[in-house]
Write a structure and sequence with these properties.
Layout (H helix, E strand, L loop, with lengths): L1 H10 L35 H27 L3 H4 L4 H6 L10 H6 L13 H11 L7 E9 L2 E9 L5 E7 L12 E6 L3
Antiparallel strand pairs: 1-2, 2-3, 3-4
C-alpha cells in the first residue's frame, strides 16, 4: 500500500478517507496505473512553437539581406571623391588598355607583333572566343603588360568606321578561354 500511496502522491491522486471501502478493502483508486512519464512531458513537444520561430528567424534573415546587400553595394558620391588627390591620379582602370590614344594609333603604323597569336589557327580561335568572326583582320598589335600580366594587344576594326578596338588578351587566348584582360575603343587619327 505504501508503494501505491507514493504513486498516487506523484500523480496528484491522494485517496480520501470518505472514498475508502467500508469493508476494509482497498480503494479502487489506489490501484497503481501505468505511469505515463514525467509531468513536463504532458506539455507536448513544442514543435509548432519551434517551427514558428524558425519561420520568423528565416524572414528576419531574408529582410536583412534585402536591405543590407543593396546598401553594401551602393556607392555614394561622397565616398567616391574622398580619396587623396595623388591616389586618384595614379589609379588605373583595370578594364582599359594601359596605353594612350596616340600610342594605340601608332600601332597601326607598324606590322603587328602578335607573339603566339601569329599562328593563324590560334588567332582565329581567339577572335572567335572574343566574339569576332575568325577571319577578322588584325590591324596592329604588340606584346604588353596589363595589371602585372603578360598580354597580347590586338587592334581590330571597330563597330563604327571612325573607331578601332584595342583588346588585350592572354598569350594563351583560345575560343574556350580568351583571357581577356582589358579593352579600349579609340578613334582614327584626324
Amino acid at each position: 500500500m505504501a508503494e501505491t500511496a507514493s504513486v498516487a502522491e506523484s500523480t496528484g491522486d491522494t485517496p480520501s478517507d470518505d472514498a475508502a471501502d467500508p469493508d476494509g478493502g482497498a480503494d479502487p483508486r489506489d490501484v497503481a496505473a501505468p505511469h505515463a512519464g514525467p509531468a513536463h512531458a504532458a506539455r507536448g513537444t513544442g514543435a509548432p512553437r519551434r517551427r514558428a520561430a524558425a519561420w520568423v528567424g528565416s524572414a528576419a534573415v531574408v529582410a536583412a539581406a534585402a536591405v543590407g546587400i543593396p546598401m553594401a553595394l551602393r556607392t555614394t558620391g561622397a565616398s567616391m571623391h574622398s580619396a587623396p588627390a595623388s591616389l586618384q591620379h595614379i589609379t588605373v582602370d583595370p578594364t582599359r588598355v594601359p596605353l594612350s590614344i596616340p600610342e594605340l594609333q601608332a600601332l597601326l603604323d607598324h606590322p603587328a607583333d602578335l607573339g603566339p597569336l601569329s599562328d593563324g589557327r590560334r588567332r582565329a580561335a581567339c577572335l572567335s572566343g572574343l566574339g569576332y568572326p575568325s577571319g577578322t583582320p588584325v590591324l596592329g598589335g604588340s606584346p604588353i603588360r596589363v595589371a602585372g600580366r603578360n598580354a597580347i594587344l590586338l587592334v581590330l576594326a571597330g563597330d563604327r568606321p571612325e573607331s578601332f578596338d584595342a583588346v588585350a588578351v592572354a598569350p594563351t587566348c583560345s575560343a574556350a578561354d580568351t583571357g581577356r584582360l582589358a579593352a579600349t575603343v579609340f578613334p582614327r587619327r584626324p
